[in-house]
Design brief:
By secondary structure, the protein is mainly β. The chain contains one helix and 37 strands. Among the domains are: 253 residues, no CATH class; 48 residues, no CATH class. The longest helix has 4 residues. This is TonB dependent receptor. It comes from Chishuiella changwenlii.
Length: 629
């Protein structure tokens, strides 16, 4: 049985004068390995125990004149246990091996903050989580707010894989289960003493959020065969995934989603050049990857919309009164589905005299990506008039039951997670690595990529120009538009790395050249003419040609400046980095490095102005010490 134990301590000071940026961290790990071997089977068992924790003391801001009252303290502790068991069957002709993986991770993450809050004017806040009318409260002009953010996330996983020999084909099958839950209290503070006067959220305990589970099964087959001097390899697999335990109100409840994938490789016969073989193979693949919604997507926080119906201010604080109408919006989208990404690629690999070269072209598309989409609600509330109140004779805070009011209808937007994004990616990747040249004992590696990404919305969105005023009020109509914030980006980069090893001196030298040939981005053009509109009563109608001249509806046409959709290109830039390492007594390794030792950043013009990038060119020095026990 083998046992290993390690401890690391880090005292990081990215900014020595800013205590909030500095931190201390300790990590510890325990590794054990046990092997059982007999004539029929072999069992290898690995058990790992890891701990990561912060050991920071309470922090204060030296520039804060309220240092006696203000404080900030954070603590982080993570304990993880993982196990791997490999069971190899020597005599079985069908079941060759079993691999079992398991793990559990428990975190304890907590922030404690005390802060002095001083108001510049009277400020009132709502004091309810229920929908309906209620009286709010006025905050104290000066108070100390104590905030605690408590998180206790726990993650578990189990995975079982079996390897089988079906005589004419090899196969793998397995299952995987993941579980995530946060048992923390979340944000905890006195609602009458909030950390900020502008907070419009309510506290929510993390432990109230249900756990999320992912259960998947997969099967994979692999077959190699030859036709004369041509070698072929065929791989096909199918993965299914579901979320057990989720409420039946969700579309994904009890649903299985399937991800097929297939790869095919063709190795050509060797081609001899100067008596040295040139090896060529081609690979093509296609696959589907399903991404399930996250915990925050499935169980979002409620949105609280508070309309002030009465805000009566009096010099006497006892006579002040705030009255609100609160709407509680459930932002849960029960129709949310997984995001499905489809990708295909082709690759060519060449090898000649120890030099390898690969070239890959791929395309992928996700048409059901997650996105915050706007919806609309119709709100009704009252506005109470205080014109009849004699402010000098009043002897108590006014009651809304005694005041006249006006009923107001209003449209408002909210955001909800939906499958409303389209993501298209196209790219080329290449890599070349040489053998180590014996004269200088140096190896050269070159890699790079060109990517083009396009991000758009697949569902229409509700919007309006809130700056438009009609009859002294913001426009009461909402427009439905096809386009939202679409973007397109492109970049091309290359990395050149050379490493030299001198065994006699136990010295290693490495140099890397990072080149960005160009990068560009632009916002995609938008059509500002709506396809439909919503009136103040919440009814939706098609937007017709005649509506473009309607005194109220014409303002739903959104106008955009063409400059907003211009393409911006950042030109050539290059960094040269250098690192040298020395090994002492086999167990000590010292490294010194300089990033951006040499650099070049080309200036470029934007809207007639020349832009430089001098702030990115400063060298960065560092040192590493590794000790092996």
């Amino acid at each position: 049985m083998n046992l290993n134990f390690g401890v690391d301590f880090l005292n990081a000071k990215p900014d020595p004068v800013n205590d909030f940026e500095n931190y201390k961290r300790i990590t510890a790990s325990f590794r054990s390995y046990k092997k059982w071997d007999n004539d029929k089977s072999t069992i290898d068992w690995n058990l790992n125990l890891d701990y990561t924790g912060s050991i920071d003391n309470e922090k204060t801001d030296p520039d804060n004149s309220y240092a006696l009252t203000d404080s900030y303290k954070s603590s982080y502790n993570d304990i993880a246990i993982s196990s791997t068991l490999d069971w190899i069957f020597k005599e079985s002709k069908f079941l060759k091996s079993l691999n079992f993986y398991s793990g559990i991770s428990q975190q304890f993450d907590q922030i404690k903050q005390s802060k002095l809050v001083q108001l510049s004017s009277a400020k009132a806040i709502p004091n309810t989580k229920e929908e309906g009318e209620s009286y709010g409260v006025f905050l104290q002009p000066k108070y100390i707010s104590d905030l605690k953010v408590d998180g206790k996330p726990i993650d578990l996983y189990l995975k079982l894989i079996g390897n089988f020999d079906l005589k004419w084909i090899n196969a793998r099958a397995g299952a995987e289960w993941k579980y995530a839950k946060n048992n923390g209290d979340g944000q905890v503070y006195d609602p009458l003493l909030p950390p900020s006067e502008d907070m419009n959220t309510r506290t929510r305990s993390y432990k109230e959020i249900p756990a999320i589970q992912d259960l998947s099964f997969f099967v994979e087959t692999n077959k190699k065969f030859k036709i004369e001097q041509h070698q072929f390899e065929f791989l096909a697999g199918l993965r299914s995934i579901t979320s057990p335990g989720i409420d039946k109100k969700y579309t994904i409840s009890k649903q299985y989603y399937f991800d097929p994938r297939i790869n095919f490789q063709w190795k050509l016969p060797n081609i001899y050049i100067n008596n040295n073989p040139l090896k060529i193979d081609f690979t093509a693949g296609y696959g589907v990857n399903t991404k399930m919604p996250t915990l925050n997507m499935l169980y979002p926080e409620n949105t609280y919309v508070d309309f002030v119906q009465l805000n009566y201010y009096h010099d006497n604080p006892a006579y002040r009164r705030i009255h609100l109408k609160t709407y509680v919006l459930d932002n849960t989208n029960y129709a949310l589905k997984p995001a499905v990404n489809k990708k295909w690629e082709i690759r060519t690999d060449l090898e000649y005299k120890g030099t390898n070269f690969s070239f890959t072209y791929f395309q992928e598309r996700m048409s059901s990506g997650f996105r915050n989409m706007k919806g609309y609600n119709r709100y009704t509330y009252r506005k109470f008039s205080t014109s009849a109140i004699d402010h000098t004779a009043i002897n108590q805070a006014p009651n809304v039951e005694d005041l006249p009011s006006e009923t107001i209808n209003e449209l408002g937007t909210y955001t909800k997670q939906a499958n409303g994004s389209v993501l298209d990616k196209t790219g080329i990747e290449f890599q070349m690595s040489t053998k180590r040249f014996s004269i200088i004992n140096t190896r050269l590696t070159v890699n790079g990529a060109w990517f083009k990404t396009k991000y758009t919305n697949s569902l229409p969105v509700y919007d309006r120009n809130d700056k438009i005023i009609i009859n002294g009020k913001p426009t009461p109509y909402l427009g439905l538009y096809l386009n939202d914030d679409g973007t397109e980006g492109e970049r091309f980069n290359t990395n050149i790395m050379g490493d030299t090893y001198i065994p006699v001196l136990k010295l290693e030298f490495s140099t890397s050249v990072q080149i960005m040939w160009f990068s560009s981005s632009r916002s995609l053009p938008k059509n500002g003419i709506p396809i439909a509109y919503v009136d103040p009563s919440g009814n939706q109608y098609n937007y017709e040609e005649a509506d473009k001249s309607d005194p109220a509806l014409k303002w739903l046409i959104l106008n955009y400046n063409d400059n907003a959709f211009r393409k911006y290109t950042t030109p050539f830039s290059m960094n040269v980095n250098f690192k040298v390492s020395k090994v002492f007594y086999e167990n000590f390794r010292v490294s010194m490095f300089v990033n951006r030792l040499l650099n070049y950043y080309k200036e470029y013009n934007v809207n007639g102005q020349t832009l430089g990038r001098r702030g990115l060119t400063s060298p960065y020095f560092g040192m590493e010490l590794n000790i092996k026990f």
